[in-house]
Design brief:
By secondary structure, this protein is mainly α. The chain is built from 13 helices and 2 strands; from the N terminus they run αααααββαααααααα.
Length: 355
């Protein structure tokens, strides 16, 4: 794994798992975090966790509280992009700064775009004014994402940086919501890029974060999701039993994930070791939407149910991103969102809303 992205992922994992004091803001700062899910510091993952939470509810035909939608809308930059978190929304968004992990980025924007698109589902009973605001914001976010594709066909985390499999997959997962996108030149170019970071079938078929890195579950699960569908997704038809590897990026990613889940039920973090519940959840959704790897989907879902309490409700307080991720799993697999491994994901998530 690229060292920079490894540190970024570790930082996000830490802030989503640990409740820490929010930074003090100037008295005139134009910000309110009413409507934000979770008590932990949102600096590195505010938009990301909010988007997963909204998608998780929408994917189960539940309506997010209006304040949660309003919070996400307020985070959008004037050009349609999103930062990880804007503490003072009266100030314009800064320029992308990969060294400081600040400024608009494709990952936050892609997740927000998918969350906003999920609100167009007529089963989500938003008032018309708020729904129209969400549609307009989604249009602007999607247009910004489309412009960030690099010459090699991939997407970078920050504009101007090198392409990576995770960012490419997350952006594809969002843009797939646009009718006909999966047959577009942009999609085909992105698929070719993911092929350049994939290993051979004999080596497992997984995706590396970038060329020169080793294949890992995070890059493969997010990259594959972008090739097969997107979030939140809804109940999928019964999957085929097999997921054979072949000489395409899609087949390689699907095969890698199916083998990883079937072997032990959950994916492991790379290079840190230990269970990677987020990649496992993404892998389950990707396989469900690819409609391949029936046993792997079942084993992955079972592993997530066993881990649900520890993943979603650690001792530091509810993790809304985790709750949203498992709600998306439930939506795609038909699991019960109010009793997922004995945990009521909906009540836990809504109970974490700041008021």
């Amino acid at each position: 794994m690229n060292t920079r992205t490894g540190m970024r992922r570790l930082a996000i994992a830490l802030v989503t798992a640990t409740a820490v004091a929010l930074p003090a803001l100037p008295a005139n700062a134009a910000t309110t975090d009413a409507g934000l899910y979770g008590a932990a510091d949102p600096t590195y993952d505010g938009v990301f966790r909010q988007s997963l939470a909204i998608m998780g509810l929408a994917g189960n035909y539940l309506t997010p509280p209006p304040s949660a939608v309003t919070w996400l809308l307020a985070q959008q930059c004037s050009d349609g992009s999103f930062e990880a978190y804007r503490a003072d929304t009266s100030q314009p968004c800064g320029k992308p700064d990969p060294a400081a992990y600040t400024g608009p980025d494709t990952n936050s924007t892609a997740l927000a775009f998918q969350a906003l698109m999920s609100l167009t589902n007529t089963a989500v009973k938003l008032n018309e004014k708020l729904r129209n605001r969400a549609v307009d914001a989604a249009d602007r976010a999607g247009a910004w994402l489309a412009k960030q594709q690099n010459a090699d066909g991939g997407w970078p985390y920050y504009a101007g940086s090198a392409s990576d499999a995770n960012s490419t997959g997350l952006v594809l997962a969002g843009l797939n919501a646009l009718g006909g996108f999966s047959g577009s030149k942009a999609y085909k170019r992105a698929s070719r890029f993911l092929g350049t970071v994939s290993s051979s079938c004999s080596a497992g078929g997984g995706f590396a974060y970038q060329q020169g890195s080793k294949p890992d579950p995070s890059a493969t699960s997010q990259g594959t999701l972008g090739l097969v569908g997107g979030l939140p997704g809804y109940k999928q038809p019964k999957a085929a039993a097999t997921a054979p590897c072949a000489n395409t990026a899609r087949a390689k990613g699907v095969s890698y994930l199916a083998k990883g889940l079937a072997s032990g039920g959950g994916l492991l973090q790379s290079p840190y070791g230990g269970a990677d519940y987020t990649s496992t959840a993404t892998a389950v959704v990707a396989l469900a939407q690819a409609r391949q790897g029936r046993a792997a989907i079942a084993k992955g879902t079972a592993a997530l149910k066993r881990a649900a309490a520890a993943y979603v409700t650690p001792s530091t307080g509810p993790n809304p991103g985790a709750a949203g991720a498992l709600l998306i799993v439930a939506a795609n697999t038909g699991a019960k969102p109010t009793s997922f491994g004995g945990l009521n994901l909906v009540a836990t998530l809504n109970g974490s809303l700041r008021r």
